Amino acid sequence: MAVGTQNEYLPYIATLKFNMGTAFRNTIFLLLGSILFISQFSISCKEGLRSDLPDKIDFNFHIKPILVDRCYKCHGPDEKARKAGLRLDLRAGLFGKTKSGKKIIAPGRPGNSELIKHIYSTDPDWIMPPTESNLTLSAKEKGMITKWIDQGAAWKDHWAFLPIEQKPVPKVSFEKEIRNPIDQFIGIKLEQEGIEPSAPADPERLLRRIYLDLTGLPPSVEAMDEFLKNPSDEYLQSIEDKLLQTDAYAERMTMEWLDVARYADSHGYHADGWKSMYPWRDWVIKAFKENMPYDQFGTEQLAGDLLPNATEEQILATGFNRNHQITAEGGVIDEEYRMEYVFDRINTTSTAFLGLTMKCAQCHDHKFDPITQKEFYQFAAFFNNVDELGMNSDDGNCGPTILLLPDSSKHQLAEVKKYIEKIQTDLENNTEKVKNNMDYLNQKISSGDVNGLQMRLPVEKLSTFTKNKNKVTVLDQNPLARLDGQAELKDGYLGKSICLENEYQGIFLDSVGLFDRNQPFSAGVWIKPEIGKGFKTIFCNAGDKNSLWRGWDVLIDTSDELIFRIIHALPHDQLRIQSTVKIEFGQWQHVMVTYDGSGSARGMSIFLNGKPCVNRIVYDQLTRSCLPVDGTFKPVKRALRLGRWNENFSGEIAFLKGCFDDIRIFSRQLSALEVASLGDFKYENQSRDDHNLMEYYLLNNDSTHRGLTDLLKKWVGKETSLYDDAVEVQVMDEDHPRTTYILDRGVYSEKKEKVLPGVPLCLQGMPAEFPQNRLGLARWIFSRDNPLTARVTVNRYWQMFFGRGIVATANDFGNQGALPSHPELLDWLALQLMEHHWDIKWLIKTIIESATYRRSSIYREDLEAADPQNILLARGPSFRLSAETIRDNALAASGLLVEKVGGEPVKPYQPDNIWGEKSFFSPKYLVYNQDTGANLYRRSMYTIIKRTSPPPAMMTFDGNDRSYCVVSRPTTNTPLQALILLNDPTYVEAARMLAQKVKSEQHKDTKELIGLAFRRLTGRKPNEKEMEVLIGLYAQEINHFKNDPNKANQLLSIGEYPLDTSWDPNELAALTIVNNTIMNHDESYMRR
Amino acid sequence: MHHCKDYRRIHSRRDFLSTSALGMGAIALAGLLDPVNALAATSINDAVAVLPHFTPRVKRVIYLFQSGGPSQVDLLDYKPQLLKYQGQDLPPSIRGTQRQTGMSAGQKIFPVVPSPYSFKARGQSGHMISDMLPFTAQVADELTIIRSMYTEAINHDPAATFIQTGSQQPGRPSIGSWVSYGLGGENENLPSFIVLLSKTSNGQPLYDRLWGNGFLASQHQGVKFRSGKDPVLYLDNPSGMDSKDRRRQLDYLNELQKLQKNEVKDPEIDAKIAQYEMAFRMQTSVPEALDVKGEPEHIYELYGPDSRKPGTFAANCLLARRLAERNVRFIQLYHQDWDHHGQLPQAMPTVCKATDQPAAALIKDLKQRGLLDDTLVIWGGEFGRTTYSQGKVTAESFGRDHHPGCYSIWMAGGGLKKGLAYGSTDDFCFNVAENGVHIHDFQATLLHLLGIDHERLNFKYQGRRFRLTDVYGKVVHDILS
User: Fold this and answer.
1) Which of B198, B233, B269 to mutate to test the interface with A (most CBs of A within 10 A)?
2) A269: which chain B residues are within 8 Å (Cβ-Cβ)?
3) Pairwise CB contact (< 8 Å): A972 & B23
4) Counting Cβ atoms within 10 Å, is residue B23 exposed (0-12), middle (13-18) or buried (19+)?
5) Chain A residues whose beta carbon lies within 8 Å of the beta carbon of residue B217
6) Tens digit of pLDDT for each residue in B157-173?
7) Is A101 an 8 Å CB contact of chain B?
């Protein structure tokens, strides 16, 4: 890339335009066209050429950015938006003909090129881009295009989609230090521009640079002293190697990845409640600590669950694609948001690994890149098979999840499972024994009402009484059997029945039906349902979305089949069976369910009219408690409802219009024989076969069986409570294959053509031998032939160390993205990274080992005109520290930093009521209960991120609310930042603690105290003049505090860390002010 | 280099919360370095340099956002015809295909509930306004009421995000951020976009993103002014330190910074010094702007008794006037508590009492100070409410669900046809009958009044030019004077 230094803005065809411009304004195109046509333009007009155009015009670098930006919207990849059938993003289109058969571009002959005629036209009907687009071409841009055509109009494919090729490392004749090939790639450009690189950075700044870049923490004074004693290359290398092994290094690398992976501690939409993704974050830390190869790092996060014999950790890694925002807003349509989650996975995956803005193709073909809407949905098919809900609870994790138990519980759980297995074997053996003894043939059979009856309602009478001034209507004079609304008694199956007419009516049974996972139970009722829309409720105490529908229920589903569910959380932690027979409407039928308390769907049965149904097991994974809880997850004695569901948020009231009779709830598993007796007496005789008699015997009369089921209840209960204590993390699964459709305009309900999983053709597509799922996708992303992943990765890491990527738009390697400043270097690093088996530490070490990285960052006046942005890297990189690092630096310098790795997010200082003033939802995140003690001083990456109310001080320093995948943060400079460093208790306390720290370390004179504080904060010694200023400040402040000692005490009382009262408060306060001043010094918050 | 410096100077005039390290100045420089490569960046320049696009009608906006969705049926859209249908199921022909929230979608019937409140013709304009808004009624002739607002979003989060940012999904800049980006501020000691939240005890959640900067630089995000001792987060000096002490400290800090500048020569250090000075001035200018102690008795009476209680909507309306006097560009108030799914007759008086008098007082107060002519005041929420009851209608109560199909807002101030009622709804107050105003039309009109062409104020991000109105929006010229 040539770097222009002239500032003249004469158009390329300045003479022509100047001569004709005023006189023939409207006919300029004609004249221009004819002159160009007639003359050998390129020769005759050389005198008038713009002097600021590069000698050699490059299609990719100079022309395509103009075409993409001004033309592709209407003449690009989006077929629907395409005007006049012209497609300028493809070679054939750009070099094709217009409808009237004219050449769009005639290489070497600008005057014969329709494009030129249109861009120079002033006729509103001719000019391109058209006036209504609000887009224009500058004279220089027009000149550029003209010159390119004049030079032969050479086409090049988009650089980023071309294979990464081995390029020779250029030879540089510089005498300056060349430490590795990076310096040669950088050096050759400097050499071409005649720019001398800067000298190496001074040792102090270099050491701090390396510490901050590798660990996000400053060097200790001891480390500085050691290095100053021996500032050799060997010693520095050993420091680097040491730092690369630290937890702090892993944390620093993780910090960047958390932005990419949009990690947060809350759901993001609406209630924005609690979830616990932090074990995933800790997985990332561990991966960096172990230097997991980047392809494995990516593959496990994209598809760890699909790896053969996936480990717990590999499944945990897939939390990456479940970090997205989730809604809990009552009233949303489930599918709409579920699709949003799928779209978010596409956006994150394509941005993070491929540097593609695939999201643009959700509603229509991509306007700038060769990605069709169909390809977007083919990509969506990889992420569309998760068994998840769109609407979830205000607080809590949304399935699918993984349950992580501490090692001690894991061991216990294994034991418990062994016991349970043994009991089940014993039960089977006992059954076998009973079967052989045939004792059951001699037993006495009694009616099923004797044992374990919790409630029976014959439904014969309605009565009303007044309670707390409210009229309460009850069934059968049972105060626990309340009626909601004005339902009436009508003739029933046995005497009377209660009939519900509308959804404001229902039957509520208090204090019954509260059964946990290990509790056998049975429930039955005669019903006469009427035809109606949607689900219909027979029994339920589940249904509160804010506890993810915990409880159990029996429903008639939309296909008229019966469903029996026992739920910890929908959709992933439940037992669910479904009958294959259908209910009859307008008829009396007896419905009964039984459950054996085993925690397995095989222990569930549905009976219709006393006959066991053939049931399908739909879900068989219930691990935790199913007792109803409220939105704060506290146990609640929710009434068992009949006729109406508990839910009013998902559009599912599940009202059963019809009549109910003879309701019975049992806290034991009834045998088929007993159910038959309740269901319909005419089946009684037929059901007295051997098997039923034996089952009756086991469940009623066999003490061994009873003893074993009591034991089972105990151990299943134990198992449940172990799982209940586990940490839950949202992960991916592939258990719910769905058909993916192209969605018209990206709208969830506008399904069009079916699509299969696939990747964009512009990237050569996915080889057939790869599995056509996320694992295949991951293999393709990291395959050697993928031109993007390694480039994108290398670029992100380069950006981390230089403040700017080789491609400045780290999120966009497509047509609208920036072009690489050093394309050969990018490719060399990308290829080397793959050859080094995606070894990130190798990459980082290579970068920081380069002379380029190590140069002094001091600004050079001689480069102000030529390279003010330091793109050529003649000097070293300098930039403001990140929000997290600014705070971590202050904590580390003051000795406050608590270097604990991982764990739950923490709540350090934050102004009062930042959360509470905005939201009354999410009980867990209603109030920001600030932590105390060590949690106030953890690294900033552990500070809780509630997405709709992120930590304000971090946001002011361009922190990230983690709504979406972000691969580069902006760096702003605002007065609000000054207010934070000056006034936030975090920094005032750190300044005070730094005063205590240096006082306790160094008892000598003020100069030494200040010098030490300065070094701890900035990584260097103050120079004479700086020291003079600081001493002056200290002297001022000491006097000031001596005159008003109360002020010193007030200042020193800020922060929770105890004050060391052994020091003179005035001195301490003065030093606190000095330290705070140093914190606000450029050298503290900048990395130079 | 002089290009760069000029650019910076222009920008520091326009932008209160200043330049970015790798931001504006650098972009101008990039233009010199490689104009083609910097195309993406220069679009910022193009988009903003020519502003305003035409003569602005107002200089500033006060947006009284009524979060939760106030019921148009009960406040601003008079529908006497509804009495005929009281208790009847809303005809399916009227209901049409409008999407319903999950909360009432399961209802078997949708009983029409006429408003229990009386409406009267007010002032010269004859605006029909409910008795629930007696004070608003007094300023009826100042109001332009739009009765035909409509949106696509049916739930709070997407709907509020939509009207505040132009997209139902989070991530885009808010209206105030776009205006700050486009026009900057006029008071160099106060932010150009200020947000005030009312203290309420319930209501729908608010999100920082409603006043967030999205992909624009963070100096354009709304700065939340809070009631109490720390009106801007971290504005107050630590205890034990007063303004003089701070000045002394800053003088020394400036010395240090200048020494550093001499050594490392980074021009950004000068910008930093300027920001510290700005921060110092804010420590005075913000409390001064918010200090209502000097307000005379009749002003408190005008805004109502709540105006003496910091953090109420009334107190915030008074502050909004003070900020408008100080030429703050975009002042946004949020009041929650309008989400009346049930118990509407019980909830409505409370929220109306909290908001009616102060909003009307703001109009009167701006007017008596001559500020109404160049200020745009907007009152409205994210959607309306259903004409039918959500849940059961009893003798005492009923509720209304979210309703995107039509709703009412009002505007007042410069450039508008005063006393105009624009657009209408059908007899059921369910569908727009004529002159529908979509969210994007509303946004386009708002920008238009500020002298901004909504199609030209854009920002290129991730390879695409974004604007507040996405690819939609028509200025509602009919309401402009």
Assistant:
1) B233
2) 157, 170
3) yes
4) buried
5) 970, 972
6) 999 999 999 999 888 99
7) no
Residue B113 and residue B95: Cα distance in Å, rounded?
A: 14
Question: Beta strand pairing status for B407-413 and B375-380?
Answer: antiparallel
Whether residues A803 and B257 touch (CB distance < 8 A) is answered with no
A1052 contacts in B (CB within 8 Å)? 240
Q: Chain B contacts of A803, Cβ < 8 Å?
A: 22
Report CB contact under 8 Å: B22, A804: yes
The residues pairing with A754 across neighbouring beta strands, listed in sequence order, are: A741
Concatenated DSSP letters of A972-1012? B--HHHHHHHHH-HHHHHHHHHHHHHHHHH--S-HHHHHHH
Shortest Cα distance from A173 to chain B (angstroms)?
25
Cβ–Cβ below 8 Å for A975 and B279: yes
Asked if A654 reaches chain B (Cβ–Cβ under 8 Å), the answer is yes
Q: Determine the residue of chain B that is closest to A532 in CA distance.
A: B108
Question: How many angstroms separate the CA atoms of B103 and A649, rounded?
Answer: 5
Q: What are the backbone angles phi and psi of residue A477, rounded to the nearest 5°?
A: 55, 20
Measuring CA to CA, which residue among A693, A690, A712 is closest to residue A701?
A693
Using CA coordinates, name the residue in chain B closest to A271.
B205
Percentage, residues of chain A above pLDDT 90: 74
**What's the Cα-to-Cα distance from A1079 to each of A213, A223, A896, A1084, rounded to whole Å?**
19, 20, 15, 6
Give the integer Cα–Cα distance in Å for B327 and B59: 8
pLDDT tens digit sequence for A428-439? 999 999 989 888
Is there a contact between A186 and A145 (Cβ–Cβ < 8 Å)? Answer: no
Q: From the list B34, B156, B202, which residue is nearest A270 (CB)? A: B156
Q: How far apart are CA A1084 and CA A672, in angstroms?
A: 77
The 10 Å Cβ neighbour count of residue A126 is 13
* Contact assignment for A816 to B464 by CB distance below 8 Å: yes
Tell whether the model's pLDDT for residue A512 goes beyond 70.
yes
Rounded alpha-carbon distances, angstroms, from residue B278 to A136, A507, B250: 38, 66, 11
Name the residue in chain B with its Cα closest to that of A1087: B264
* Chain B CB within 8 Å of residue A193 CB: no
Supply the pLDDT for residue A179: 94
Q: Which candidate from B37, B219, B458 shows the least CB-CB separation from A972?
A: B219
Q: Interface pTM (ipTM) of the complex?
A: 0.89
The DSSP-derived string for A767-823 is -TTS-SSHHHHHHHHTSTT-SSHHHHHHHHHHHHHHSS-SSS-TT--STTSPPPSSH
Report the percent of chain B where pLDDT is more than 70.
90
Q: How far is CA A433 from CA A6, A422, A598, A887, in A?
A: 101, 16, 21, 71
A41: closest CA of chain B, how far (Å): 24
Strand partners, B421: B145
Q: Of B480, B409, B401, B407, whose CA–CA distance to B448 is shortest?
A: B480
Mean residue pLDDT of chain A comes to 91
The answer to whether A521 touches A620, Cβ cutoff 8 Å, is: no
Nearest by CB to residue A650, choosing from B32, B102, B202, is B102
For residue A14, pLDDT beyond 60: no
Q: What span, in angstroms and rounded, lies between the C-alpha atoms of A204 and A229?
A: 11
Say which residue the tokens 């769009």 belong to. A104
Q: What domains are defined for chain B? A: 51-239+268-479 (3.40.720)
Nearest neighbour of A973 by CB, restricted to B21, B240, B460: B21
* Cα A504 to Cα A692: distance, rounded to the nearest angstrom: 41
Write out pLDDT tens, residues A363-422.
898 888 889 999 999 999 999 999 999 999 999 999 999 999 999 999 999 999 999 999
Residue whose pair of structure tokens reads 């009847």 in the numeric block: B88
How far is residue A820's CA from residue A159's CA, in Å, rounded to a whole number? 9
